[in-house]
Amino acid sequence: MKHAVEYALYRLAEGVLRYLQWDAALAAGKLAGAAAYWVDRRHRKVVLDNIQNSDLGLSKKDSIRTAKACFRHFGALSFSLPRLLFMNADELKRRVAFQGIEHWDAAQRLGKGFIGLTGHFGNWEAMALALSASGRSLAVIGRKLENPWLNERLRILRTRFGNLTIDKGGALKEAVKVLRRGMGVGFLLDQDARSNGVFVDFLGRQASTHPAAAALALRFNLPIVPIFSHPQSDGTIIVRVEPALEISRTGNLEADILSATQLMSDALERQVRLSPHVWFWMHRRFKTQPYPPTRG
């Protein structure tokens, strides 16, 4: 019953929001996000704690300003998602511009697959759709939604230009299959990996991070291509593709995986420092720490 109600509510929202003009959806979402900052006390606290405990060099006033902007950004993203998922290829090309796309193409031409490094930054949904609409499909690893109807609905919309989705459970095996076909695999490397991760420095703090992307890159000698989206004030989005990261191979696999994971985290950190308000601070990224706090 819960899943049926959730799905019905989503389809209702989808039926309304998909017909809004892009600018109107963004504007309405920003208003909703601004309201959510005051209403959603729990997530407001998480966002402010995350921002203030990271070494962004922000004053308390600037931290609050960034938190409010973050809520507005993700409100806009949420309201525009139904419109985005039904957007045709021509409109996607008008809304999303690429910079450095030659780095993607260079990795693709090698024919052995590659790692597409990104995070919950900017508008990653628009980025993935625009890439696939331009003939640059990739497989994206993510966790299935609890609601199977909603999960299948979003999967169909996200993959309509050729992208694939890989369930996080058992992702490694499926990722290898995709890589052997010469396709890129996208990793969103900014979620707490809990006890399954390795600890890297991120925004001045220790963060448990999934090492699978680094392990695959080292095992199969794959390029790691950073890809990030930057929403603009006029409603357009710039997707910046950076040159493939240079990872070291010392022969010590454990050390090399840690080094490569740190290098990838550094690439994401540079983006967050450029535009902190469009990163997903609502996630408890730093919940898992190397050592439990002592008492007494």
CATH class membership of the domain at 89-278: Alpha Beta
Alpha-beta content class: alpha/beta
Tell me the fraction of residues in β-strands, as a range. 15-25%
Strand order of the largest sheet: 1-9-8-2-5-3-4
- Tally of DSSP helical segments: 11
The overall pLDDT, averaged over residues, is 94
CATH architect. name of the domain at 89-278: 3-Layer(aba) Sandwich
What is the terminal-to-terminal distance? Answer: 47 Å
Number of strands: 9
CATH superfamily of the domain at 89-278: Glycerol-3-phosphate (1)-acyltransferase
List the helices and strands and how they pair.
Layout: H1 2-17, H2 22-39, H3 41-52, H4 60-85, H5 89-95, E1 96-99, H6 101-109, E2 114-118, H7 124-133, E3 138-142, H8 148-158, E4 164-167, H9 171-180, E5 184-188, E6 198-202, E7 205-209, H10 212-220, E8 224-231, E9 237-241, H11 253-274
Parallel strand pairs: 1-9, 2-5, 2-8, 3-4, 3-5
Antiparallel strand pairs: 6-7, 8-9
Question: Would you write up a description of this structure?
Answer:
The chain has helices at residues 2-17, 22-39, 41-52, 60-85, 89-95, 101-109, 124-133, 148-158, 171-180, 212-220, 253-274; strands at residues 96-99, 114-118, 138-142, 164-167, 184-188, 198-202, 205-209, 224-231, 237-241. With 296 residues, it is an alpha/beta fold. It has a domain at 89-278: Glycerol-3-phosphate (1)-acyltransferase, CATH 3.40.1130. It has a 7-stranded mixed sheet, sandwiched between helices. It has a two-stranded antiparallel sheet with strand order 6-7. Strand 6 (198-202) and strand 7 form a beta hairpin. The model has no long low-confidence stretch (mean pLDDT 94).
